[in-house]
Amino acid sequence: MLSTQLINRTVNNSGLNAWAATKPVLPKHWKQRFQNWIEKGYYADMGWITRNIDFRVNIKKKYSWCQSVLVFADNYYTPPVHRKNTPYVSNYAYGENYHQIVIEKIESVARQLSQFHSNLKFKAYVDTGPVLERAYAVEAGLGWMGKNNMIIINGLGSYCFLGILLLSEEIEEYGSPLPDKCCDCSKCIDNCPTGALEDEYIHNSNKCLSFLTIEKKGDFSNREEKLITDTLYGCDVCQEVCPWNQKWARQTKDSHYFERRDYLQKTKNEWGSLTLEEFKNKFSNSVFKRLKFKRLQRNLDALD
Ligand code: B12
Ligand code: SF4
Ligand code: SF4
What we know:
Shape: globular
Mean pLDDT: 96
Distance between the termini: 57 Å
Bound molecules: cobalamin, iron/sulfur cluster
Oligomer: single chain
Number of domains: 1
Structural class: alpha+beta
């Protein structure tokens, strides 16, 4: 059994901002919600997400040793850089590749815990496995799920990466879902520039600027191109308008998350003159790398 006090201490040492814990098997309604989303085709061309459905909601399917799931939040927020004449780049792309940063922090927690439990088995994920991270975050009580599908954490807001740590030990205290604080608000739905938030909790990736500018392979259709307007990489509109972010979002203390801030304040022409060589050098350890040079050009061509 791992004590709450011990976990608190290791998390404080790691630089992560919050944690909560739950069991490895999610309540049944999460699978149902996920399947509805798939059936409607809201996953666009991310076919990989339709696989491993049982594991996404039940970690025991693959890791029978798993007794507990710790879910972490890492604040990455810095004030937005874009100006009127600079293409829009979302906040999470201002820094180094978050997968590596968050996973290192989580593994440092695991290593510290292992010093007290020599047989402890663990496995960390930050987008790196087929797990419904946001559903685990809700069940653990790390935050509540906003109507924009983002996990909003009390005192921090939603500009936080999530990551999970599977553990082979029981822990002293498990969390439970928090009360919803969206209440009558619908600002994220009303302000989504493309109508991708079709209803409360209903996110259609086919229309989402984040999907179109980051994940979509190949050329844009005419319909898609019209949606792009000023967006070069990702979208934060449904977070920017959220009253809870306006109240709670604070600059992260982790400088890895804002290393490229100034570099990203480029006009469309400046972006257009970037060479392949410069792209590779500047973005070798950035989420931009996922885009590849060709899709950066595609996005630039689609800008108004
Ligand atoms: C695929 C993916 C995407 C896709 C699809 C988005 C989506 N809505 O799922 C695209 C590329 C569009 C995307 C965009 C973004 N993403 Co993304 N994405 C993922 C990924 C890899 C899987 C998500 C997934 O499984 N989606 C499937 C859908 C069905 O699940 P869901 O969003 O949890 O949807 C739930 C609701 O529909 C809910 N539901 C339905 N009815 C009801 C009713 C009630 C009452 C409730 C409470 C819930 C509910 O049930 C569904 C099942 O869980 C996760 C990492 C991971 N492994 O979890 C990151 C992740 C979700 N993304 C993240 C981020 C930061 C973003 C962006 C902000 C990036 C950006 N700035 O451009 C945007 C935000 C868009 C948005 N509003 O969701 C973070 C979110 C952090 C947080 N605080 O919530 C994650 C967790 C990555 C990470 N490790 O930090 N993403
Ligand atoms: S990320 Fe942008 S396009 Fe996607 S749902 Fe949020 S506001 Fe809409
Ligand atoms: S904008 Fe309003 S409805 Fe949307 S997530 Fe924030 S509080 Fe909830």
